[in-house]
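Bug #77: duplicate submission created two jobs. Keeping one. Sequence:
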Amino acid sequence: ADFSPSINVVLCVVLLFFFIFLLLYSSLSPTYWDSPSPFFYDQT
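Kept job's structure:
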């Protein structure tokens, strides 16, 4: 019971950093969202 509050805080922080990372990644590389990734299409 002593670890559940700390785990919740860690999960919230990780989710926040992940969300910020997605925002920064999408803003730094707009071509990734505009054009389809060739990595998935080359594996036919």
